[in-house]
């Protein structure tokens, strides 16, 4: 008997309920209805046992197995339930997974053997994958068997029960682990989380993923075996559950680090997942894409989830030089098509229903068209993140490289030399991407340079404006672009292209003041929309951070903010000579160079024009765009103050109000 009477009681409950169906190891499909009723009753009983433990303060620590009898109890519970996952009925699988999650919650409330239970689940994942590989491809049987040649007696017991396992069993156990992870997120128990991550990391590190890549359900298998399509579906289900689970692990690991204040180290599971990314991309996108009747919706789901995973991981590994380099190669291999899609949105294109469950009835072609913008946002953001991570790296240059002599230009043929220097590698990637989205004749001294900068920035904002969570991520990230683009004079010369531009002056294209103006313009200067962002549970923190940092830059670059203009279509070819301050803070046009005038731009304000000393007309300071932005931000300040006075604002907005007060003071000075 188990040393813990409560665990013993649970074991007897599970055994009495399920032994009639699982003792032989083969569950009859004809008893599906009976099994469903039994599982429903069992689930209810386990939850009642858990509720009875909630008020029990004598629970011990969450440790491994207390004794051999405890091991037998846990093994019996797990094996009964795992056998039910081999049943073809999706309803039986679903209820079985729910019971396993309920058992996990019971053991966590009990305070003992929870870690051992998680270990058993991880062992089941490993065994199920190995058996599924053997069943799918017989020539891999020997290698898969070698993987467990030294297994313990506990593993052997589970292995006998999993002789009929397939990919759906592995998918089911992964789903259970995912649900347990969500439970841990609500409990906020560091001991449980650490045990969970350690066990999951152990199985992720030992599963023979190289064998998984060797499985390919192609035309021959589908033609020869009626179950070929089912195997493909089950494998896709497993991979989908696995990628979703890894996304949640990456997210929770990041939260753990933020809570502990550690930004330089992460749990070893992050490194394990990073090593899995290339294999997952190959398994989910390369191999399955060639399979017969591979659903486009599944393909798009894989692409979306893998991009989400990579984005979450890159935020935790920004100091590691090799990861951005590797992932840029993966982006080009698997997402080059969406990366090269035009930034500008067509007039008749609308993706506002993207991701909606109401799209389930549309065709694959329509789904592919609708989801391309979403994938483009993710792919471009990941690309920029990797590129700028390399640009901002320091000290990674090979001393023997030609880069150290500052005589290497981006137009040279020796791209191999660029690979030794992370900064130049990142700049080259960015340069090549911009080349595909900017006019071929765009140069700093071109008469329409400023207009084209604004047009590109506006299209870039419009790309992200419909997806709030990604919008603020990319806007916050681009706040560092001018700093990345600012180099010393020798480096500027080395990184110029044949037209004498520093990557078309990236600091002009992504200038934070320009992007902030266009961001407000896309919101129609509606301060209520900004307020909604600020109080939203999903975007509140990121929006507040973005406003704080932008307001500081606005106050530091006040004249640029006041004199902001939005480019339009050229109306004639007349222009005049004058010195123009560029968006990057340096001179874009010399005193004798040409600069676009109002004739090249479309303005919203109707203020009278004034002539400068050269006889050229320009708009007065405090044009319509500045006025609209000023009214929007000052109205936002009033709304925040009103809510804060009534204790209705969800967090302390004093820092933001101080920054808005400083902005208001500068507005008053401008009016004098």
Would you summarize the structure shown here?
With 672 residues, this protein is mostly helical. It has helices spanning 5-22, 32-53, 68-84, 90-110, 114-136, 141-147, 153-161, 167-187, 190-206, 209-213, 219-224, 228-260, 268-289, 296-316, 322-339, 364-391, 415-418, 422-435, 449-464, 468-478, 481-485, 489-494, 506-509, 512-522, 527-535, 540-556, 558-562, 624-645, 654-671; strands spanning 576-577, 580-581, 587-589, 594-595, 610-611, 617-618.
- Tell me the number of strands: 6
The level of helicity is 55-70%
How many domains, in number, for the residues? 3
The N- to C-terminal Cα distance equals 87 Å
Strand content: under 5%
Average pLDDT figure:
75
Contiguous low-pLDDT stretches (5 residues minimum) are: 216-226, 260-264, 395-399, 402-419, 483-487, 568-622
What structural class do the secondary elements suggest? mainly alpha
Question: How would you sum up the global shape?
Answer: elongated
User: Largest beta sheet, briefly?
Assistant: 2 strands, antiparallel
Indicate the radius of gyration in whole angstroms: 30 Å
Main sheet: strand order: 1-4
Separate helix tally? 29
Protein name: Protein Lines C-terminal domain-containing protein
Domain Protein Lines N-terminal: 429-563
Domain Protein Lines C-terminal: 629-665
InterPro entries: Lines_C, LINES_N, Protein_Lines
């Amino acid at each position: 008997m188990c040393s813990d009477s409560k665990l013993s009681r649970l074991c007897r409950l599970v055994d009495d309920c399920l032994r009639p169906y699982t003792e032989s190891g083969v569950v009859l499909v004809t008893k599906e209805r009976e099994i469903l009723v039994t599982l429903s009753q069992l689930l209810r009983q386990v939850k009642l046992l858990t509720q009875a433990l909630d008020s029990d303060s004598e629970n011990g620590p969450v440790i491994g197995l207390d004794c051999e009898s405890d091991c037998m109890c846990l093994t019996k519970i797990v094996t009964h339930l795992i056998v039910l996952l081999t049943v073809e009925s999706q309803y039986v699988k679903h209820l079985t997974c729910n019971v396993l999650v309920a058992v996990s919650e019971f053991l966590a409330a009990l305070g003992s053997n929870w870690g051992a239970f998680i270990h058993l689940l991880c062992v089941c994942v490993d065994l199920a994958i190995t058996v599924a590989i053997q069943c799918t491809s017989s020539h891999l049987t020997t290698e898969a068997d070698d993987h467990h040649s030294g297994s313990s007696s506990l593993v052997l017991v589970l292995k006998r029960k999993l002789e009929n396992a397939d990919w759906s069993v592995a998918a089911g156990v992964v789903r259970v682990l995912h649900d347990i992870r969500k439970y841990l997120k609500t409990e906020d128990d560091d001991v449980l989380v650490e045990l969970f991550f350690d066990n999951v990391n152990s199985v992720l590190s030992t599963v023979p993923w190289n064998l998984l890549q060797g499985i390919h359900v192609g035309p021959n298998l589908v033609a020869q075996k009626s179950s070929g399509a089912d195997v493909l579906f089950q494998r896709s289900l497993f991979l989908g559950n696995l990628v979703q689970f890894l996304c949640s692990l990456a997210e929770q690991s990041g939260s753990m680090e933020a809570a502990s204040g550690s930004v330089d180290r992460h749990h070893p599971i992050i490194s394990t997942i990073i090593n899995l990314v290339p294999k997952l991309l190959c398994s989910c996108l390369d191999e399955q894409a060639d399979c017969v009747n591979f659903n486009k919706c599944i393909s798009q789901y894989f692409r979306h989830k893998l991009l989400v995973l990579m984005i979450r991981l890159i935020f935790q590994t920004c100091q590691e030089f090799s990861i951005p380099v590797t992932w840029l190669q993966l982006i080009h291999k698997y997402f080059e098509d969406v990366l090269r899609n035009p930034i500008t949105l067509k007039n008749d294109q609308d993706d506002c229903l993207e991701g909606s469950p109401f799209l389930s009835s549309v065709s694959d072609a329509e789904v592919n068209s609708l989801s391309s913008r979403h994938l483009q946002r993710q792919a471009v953001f990941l690309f920029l993140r990797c590129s700028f991570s390399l640009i901002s790296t320091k000290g990674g240059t090979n001393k023997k490289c030609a880069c150290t002599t500052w005589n290497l230009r981006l137009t040279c043929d020796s791209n191999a030399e660029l690979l030794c220097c992370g900064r130049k590698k990142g700049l080259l990637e960015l340069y090549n991407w911009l080349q595909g989205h900017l006019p071929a004749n765009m140069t700093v001294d071109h008469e329409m340079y400023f207009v084209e900068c604004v047009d590109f920035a506006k299209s870039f904002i419009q790309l992200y404006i419909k997806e709030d969570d990604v919008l603020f991520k990319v806007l916050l990230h681009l706040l560092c672009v001018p700093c990345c683009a600012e180099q010393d004079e020798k480096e500027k010369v080395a990184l110029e292209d044949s037209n004498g531009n520093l990557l078309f002056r990236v600091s002009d294209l992504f200038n934070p003041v320009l992007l902030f103006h266009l961001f407000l313009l896309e919101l129609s200067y509606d301060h209520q929309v900004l307020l909604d962002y600020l109080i939203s549970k999903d975007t509140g923190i990121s929006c507040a951070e973005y406003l704080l940092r932008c307001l500081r830059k606005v106050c530091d670059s006040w004249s640029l903010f006041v004199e902001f203009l939005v480019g339009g279509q050229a109306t004639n070819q007349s222009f005049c000579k004058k010195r123009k301050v560029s968006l990057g803070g340096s001179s874009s046009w010399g005193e004798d160079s040409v600069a676009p005038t109002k004739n090249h731009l479309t303005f919203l304000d109707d203020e009278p024009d004034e002539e400068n000393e050269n006889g050229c007309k320009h708009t007065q300071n405090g044009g319509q765009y500045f006025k609209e932005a000023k009214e929007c931000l000052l109205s936002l300040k009033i709304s925040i103050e009103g809510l804060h006075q009534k204790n209705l604002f969800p967090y302390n907005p004093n820092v933001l109000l101080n920054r808005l007060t400083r902005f208001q003071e500068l507005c008053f000075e401008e009016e004098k």
